Amino acid sequence: MKLVPSLALVLLAACATTGPRPGEQARTRPDLVPVSRAMLAIEAAERKGDIAAQRARWTQASQAAPRDPVPRFLAIYAQPEGDERWAQFKALASEFPDSALGHLGMARTYVAWNTLDQADRALVQALEIEPDEWLAVLVRARVSERRGRTEAAAADYRTVLTADPENPDAHLGLARVARAAGDVARAEAEATLALRAYPDLFGAYALLGELAASRDDVVTAADYWTGAVEAAPRDRTARVTLARLLEKKGDVAGAEAQWKAAVDLKEDADALAALAQTARAAKDAATEQRALERLSAVDPSSAEWRRIAEIRLAAQDLDGAEKALRRALARDPRDAQASLGLGRVHAARGDTQQAIEAFRAAGGIARADLDALERRLNVEKVGRPDVTQLQKAIQALVDRTYRSRLAEAPSLSGTLRLRVTADVAGAATLVEVLEDSVHDADVRACAYWNLRDAVYPQNKPGRYSFTFAFRR
After folding, report:
1. Which residues form the TPR repeats (predicted)?
2. How far apart are CA 432 and CA 420, in angstroms?
3. What is the DSSP letter of 383?
């Protein structure tokens, strides 16, 4: 139900427009039914984020009838919850001492603040002024609910329904009480009546959705939570609940949309991870990647950088994939899968020297990739009694790679000079490229890794220079 533009006029007509003055009769009591519905419309507008129109409407109505507490009460009710609104309700009670509305407003504020003893006192004052003020009885029922006094709450809700048989809040209150008592059928019936009386009632959708989910009726639960989200689009909990139900229902696209909305309202690791997972199921790589990247910022320990790399590789973004894999390795240098992925990125780019390094770091899972690449580049473990013979053996391997490269680059030529630092055991500890006028990655990788793996004369630590000249 939506508040029609004429409701302000209806309320003004239903209430006296002047306060009691000496010699005048007491104020005519307002019709509380339209007041109740106006309050519901304000609450619905607040949930939907379009409260400005309600505030303007009731501010104008209160200015048009300054001696009527009803539009003034509703204008205050449309203001943001907080100390300032409470102060305005208190001022209303002082300015209109024969109206219960100021005390009613303070009581509702106290309930929102969960200061129930203060709510009790405000309600007593409201009912002393207007004993038939059933809006105060409605608030009193809510206070009893909070305290677990369900019988007293139910009695007050029924009193409200005597005065206003379609009151949505009272029906919803009885639904909550019935649910607490285990009477699911009655809870559903009362919540349905509440929804029928006011189709924008978030609480009724939520309760019916919870009841449907409790009996594993995912389809019905999802329908009710869809209504709840429409009634309160900024309610993040409702969107998360609906997203999970849609996942169970198999509606991947719908679930993804809800996770997106939930993340827009507030980012946290759980929601971002769920969005990434749902986007993956929906084959929405762009959304999955954004979610994973944001996840890394919110909770680095949960980031799936390897998955980001896969997404970027699928998009042919080799630079992006490399950056993602290096992030994974920065977190865990022993991440074999990340090293394997990095090796494949280097291989795809033609950076064969770095590819072998990454494949070796990956260990057993990269054995096939490493063996294939080393065979292609003629990388072998060479050992000779002296450095001269070692040079010749490695020269033969490098020449073989060079000749295979001539098929693709017939003009390939130049000089490659490297320096090796070997330890006392004859193992290379450092290989440096001092000159490379060949500018071919495969030739350089062949020379580098053969020199890196070679066995040098033992007990003769030092530096050795190797030069490989290539002419067409």
Report:
1. 302-335
2. 6
3. B
Evaluate whether 464 touches 422 at the Cβ level (below 8 Å). Answer: yes
Which tokens in the block code for residue 183?
Answer: 């009477």
Mean pLDDT across 108-127: 96
pLDDT averaged over the chain? 91
H-run or E-run covering 133:
none
Dump the DSSP string for 406-434: HTT-TT--EEEEEEEEE-TTSBEEEEEEE
| Secondary structure element (H or E) that encloses residue 435, with its range | strand 428-436
Q: Quick check: 344 and 312 in contact, CB under 8 A?
A: no
Distance CA 2, CA 198 (A): 8
Residue closest to 441 by CA, chosen among 416, 467, 419, 464:
416
Per-residue 3-state assignment (H helix, E strand, C coil) for 53-68: HHHHHHHHHHHHCCCC
Place of tokens 């309760």: 207
Look at residue 6 in the predicted model and tell me its pLDDT: 44
The CB-side HSE value for 118 (13 A sphere, CA atoms) comes to 12
From residue 401, give the alpha-carbon distance in Å to each of 388, 398, 471: 20, 5, 14
pLDDT on residue 296? 80
Rg (CA), the chain: 38
Question: Crossing angle of helices 101-113/116-129, nearest 10°?
Answer: 170
pLDDT, residue 9, reads 42
At 405 the three-state DSSP class reads helix
Helices (H) and strands (E) in the chain, counts: 24, 3
pLDDT confidence tier of residue 273, bands split at 50, 70 and 90: confident
Q: Reduce the DSSP state of residue 462 to 3 states and report it.
A: strand
Beta bridge partners of 468: 416
Q: Identify whether the C-beta of residue 456 lies closer than 8 Å to the C-beta of residue 420.
A: yes
Token pair in block for residue 98: 């024969």
Q: Note the pLDDT tens digit of each residue in 9-27.
A: 444 444 443 344 444 445 5
The span from the CA of 31 to the CA of 190, in Å, is 24
Write the single-letter amino acid at 400.
R
pLDDT of residue 315: 76
Q: Please, are residues 198 and 214 in contact by the beta-carbon 8 Å criterion?
A: no
Integer angstrom CA distances of residue 241 from 43, 46, 205, 268: 21, 21, 12, 15
> pTM to 2 decimals?
0.69
Q: Is the pLDDT of residue 158 over 50?
A: yes
Pair 219, 241: CB distance under 8 Å: no
Of 7, 40, 29, residue with least CA distance to 170: 40
Burial of 326 (0-12, 13-18, 19+ CB in 10 A): middle
* C-alpha separations of 34 from 31, 199, 373, 468 in Å: 7, 16, 81, 95
Beta carbons of 326 and 416 less than 8 angstroms apart: no
φ and ψ at 84, to 5 degrees? -65, -40
